[in-house]
Amino acid sequence: MDVELFDRIVGEGDVEEISTGEPLMMTIGTATTVGAVTSARDGECEVNLKRPVCAAEGAKIAINRRVGARWRLIGVGTLR
């Protein structure tokens, strides 16, 4: 997926780049699933999902990262 990270997390500070192996929670349409990042590079990343999601190419994805005890929205993605 193509990734656009926000500049800041509300109440938490700056958003760091996505790293390989990091767990992310993604919402695609009405489906929410967790996955581990298998590859992350300039503006794109690949994620191995624990529960598969059926979505059309070009679908928007909300990307969340675990910050403390909560999942925080860190950016949006577009499915390729």
Features:
Elongation Factor Tu (Ef-tu), domain 3; 80 residues; mainly beta; 60% strand; 6-stranded antiparallel beta sheet; two-stranded antiparallel sheet
Give the name of the CATH architecture.
Answer: Beta Barrel
CATH class: Mainly Beta
Helix content: under 10%
- What gyration radius follows from the Cα positions, in whole Å? 12 Å
Instruction: Classify the secondary structure makeup into a structural class.
Output: mainly beta
In terms of DSSP E residues, the strand content is over 45%
CATH T-level topology: Elongation Factor Tu (Ef-tu), domain 3
Largest sheet: 6 strands, antiparallel
Count of folded domains? 1
Oligomerization category of the chains in this entry = single chain
Tell me the number of helical segments per DSSP (H or I, 4 or more residues long).
0
Which regions are unreliable across 5 or more consecutive residues at pLDDT < 50? none
Q: Topology as H/E string?
A: EEEEEEEE
Q: Which term fits the overall shape? A: globular
Let me know the average pLDDT. Answer: 94
The CATH superfamily appears as Translation factors
What is the strand tally?
A: 8
End-to-end CA span: 5 Å
Strand order of the largest sheet: 1-8-7-4-5-6
